[in-house]
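Q: How would the structure tokens look for this protein?
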Amino acid sequence: MTEELQSLLERIRKEGVERAEAEAASIVAAADDRARRTLAEAQAAADDLRRAGEAEAEARRQRGETALEQAGRDFLLTLQQRIEAVLRESLRDTLAAALTPETVADMLVRLADAYAAHDMNESRVDMLLSPEDREGLAGIVMEQYRDLVEQGLVLRADERLDKGFKVSFADDDLYHDFSLEALAEALAPVLKPPLGEIVERAAQERD
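A: Here is the predicted structure in token form.
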């Protein structure tokens, strides 16, 4: 009886130990599994953060490059516009200096000759000039080109004109604008192609 009790107690103890060891192993395995999952999740989160950080850094870099390129284009465009304005003003000054009464008289004679060559010399010719140029041109015309006056040339002063002249042939509804503003506007486009090429080369060299 004592041996049987002893054997029963031994079996109970052994089974308890085995059960405890199994439970401990299960707990350890579960802990390991949770640790692995936690580590994997942490690693995935770290990877997501890294990728997000890299994407944001790349986006910022691209935005920076775009902003820099736009600033460069804006600068070159502003520079081109300023240079063009300077050239336009220089062109106006050059034209104003060139449109002397003698030059205007010569232009008028050439225009009248071309007009007469087409058998249109019966019209009254009205010529608008600045008050200053009218005074200077009147003497030249009366002295050298009296026949133009006899053909119907009329010189009129126009306060709105600075330099140059406007001429109309009344009977034939022809009108020509040789004012400083019109001549400058007509010649200004000539400045743009070479100026554009210079700016384009500057942009390419900057890149």
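The helical segments are 2-98, 101-117, 131-144, 146-150, 180-187, 192-206.

The two ends are 103 Å apart (CA to CA).

Upvote if useful.
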